[in-house]
Amino acid sequence: MIDSHCHIAGPEFAGDLDAVIARARAAHVAHALVILAADDGAELEQAAVVSAAWPDVRFSIGVHPHAAGKFGDDPAAAARSVDAAIDRQPLTRGLGEIGLDYHYDFAPRAAQQQVFREQIRLAQRRRLPIVIHTREATEDTFAILAEESAADVGGVFHCFTGDRDMARRVLDIGFHVSLAGIVTFPRALELHEVARLVPLDRLLIETDSPFLAPVPHRGTRNEPAHVVRVAERIAELRGVPAATVTAAAVANFTSLFKP
Ligand SMILES: [Zn+2]
Ligand SMILES: [Zn+2]
């Protein structure tokens, strides 16, 4: 199994990283894609500690929409900082998470859009798939992806929380859908339908650790070992063995990120 999106180079895991990795391995989570924020020097440094403890991890680096305001005067500087961070991290296999978040609006929307665009252009120059974070910004997200020809590099809508119509649009433009622990929540009925709809060859599975722990761990710090529970719930919803879902997610991860 692979956790396709987690933040274990963050401060939440600094105190017990070895134990977190041991539990992931014991749960047969062999790999993880660890997200790094290009504007967070401490996290970029901690990446070396993570890869030393868990050599099979790979990294995806980007400027999150929440941080786009830092680059409001010079959006191209966001892409330059990502470019430099990728140069320093040879295990980088993706660019992100990048995108738009109009739920929190932590950065002005114009800055979010320009920083998103600059990073898509960088992904094309570096031939890296993109990891997209989008919340309450569906139309602008699809418009920018189309205008910037993002399908050339492809990628994934991480922690997908949209409805079936949005999922179909993601699939139509050739991107993958990644489901996180929210799919285990009993009231996430529309997301359950999405879990049944996404073709097995376009599905990824993630924890987004430390956020969004699945049932029965809800409300605690999430960690990569819990990705197994997400896979099991998707398998239940689809009426197939968990091994079928797990094998598909691993194959999709491998073809998209070439770990
Ligand atoms: Zn995100
Ligand atoms: Zn994330």
Structural notes for this entry:
It is a single chain. With 259 residues, this protein is an alpha/beta fold. The chain contains nine helices and eight strands. The chain has helices at 17-26, 41-53, 75-88, 109-126, 138-147, 164-172, 189-197, 227-238, 242-257; strands at residues 2-6, 31-37, 58-62, 92-101, 130-135, 155-157, 176-179, 203-205. An eight-stranded parallel β-sheet has the order 1-2-3-4-5-6-7-8. Strand 2, helix 2 (41-53) and strand 3 form a beta-alpha-beta unit. Helix 3 packs parallel to helix 4 and helix 8 crosses helix 9 (242-257). The longest helix has 18 residues, at 109-126. The chain is globular. 49% of the residues are buried. The mean pLDDT is 97.
Write out key terms for the chains shown.
single chain, 259 residues, alpha/beta, 8-stranded parallel beta sheet, 9 helices, globular, binds zinc ion
